[in-house]
Structures are given as C-alpha cells and as structure tokens.
Amino acid sequence: MDTRRRSPGALCAVALFAALAAPAHALGPQDGLKNTPGAMFNSEDIALMKAQVFAALKAEKDGETLAWKNDKTGASGTVVPMNRLTWNGLSCRRVQIANAFKGQTAQGIYKFCQKPPGTWKLAGEEVG
C-alpha cells in the first residue's frame, strides 16, 4: 500500500490515540471510521499501539520499525519514526503507523508536534 495515501483505518487508530479520554467504542460508525482495524481495537490494543507511538516519537534514529501485537485479540501494528521538523514554530516528528485486525489492514503517515514541550499532539495526516 502506498503510505502517502489517506488511510481511514490508520486514521482511526490515530483518532483513538488522539482522543485518549474517550473509550475505543466511542469512536465508530458515526465518526466515519466503520470497518477499519482501529475501530475494532479494545483498550489493551490501544495501549499497546500508544506505547509504540510514544517510543517512536522519542526514538533517536529514523526508520526503525517498532512492532506491537496483542495475542489475546490478534490486533497488531507497526510504528516507524520518520524525520523531525519544525511546523508553525513547534517541534514535530512524522510517524508511519500501520495496523491490522481480523484480516483488515491500514496505514498512514502522521505528524505529531510537541505542545507544550514533552507533550505530543497529533497535528495531522499527510496526504501525498
């Protein structure tokens, strides 16, 4: 799959990540995220994915794949830290996120920025 193209499944996972206060089931068909891997993640799946996203954001090297898998649910994914950049005066990093669940896969490239420093926020999905 071309990682530069919009991917609703990966977007769902990032939306779940970005909306940490909301339970996973709160984001679903009404949000246009129906039938995507992330829409089916439980709280344990989300926690595993989040841990790898945070590790990628802190990683020294670009391009190293960080994988996660929940053996209980079969959900899995990878997170790849990409380049660092400054955007609107903020320190940011691009991250490729791919997720899989019950035969469905999705991936995308996302920009996370620190605001305030040390606190990462989703700045957007990049569409090439």
Estimate the global geometry from the Cα principal axes. Answer: elongated
Mean pLDDT, to the nearest integer, reads: 77
| Fraction in helix | 10-25%
Would you tell me the structural class of the helices and strands? alpha+beta
Give the H and E element order.
Answer: HHEEEEE
In angstroms, what is the radius of gyration?
14 Å
**Strand order of the main beta sheet, please?**
1-2-3-4-5
Counted beta strands:
5
Q: How can the largest sheet be summarized? A: 5 strands, antiparallel
Distance N to C terminus: 13 Å
Number of helices: 2
Q: Low-confidence parts lasting 5 or more residues at pLDDT below 50?
A: 1-16, 18-32
| Range of strand content | 35-45%
Could you explain how this protein is built, in words?
This protein is an alpha+beta fold. It has one domain (8-125). It contains two helices and five strands; from the N terminus they run H-H-E-E-E-E-E. It has helices at residues 8-18, 43-58; strands at residues 66-69, 76-87, 90-101, 104-114, 120-125. Strand 3 and strand 4 form a beta hairpin. The longest helix is centred in the middle third of the chain and has 16 residues, at 43-58.
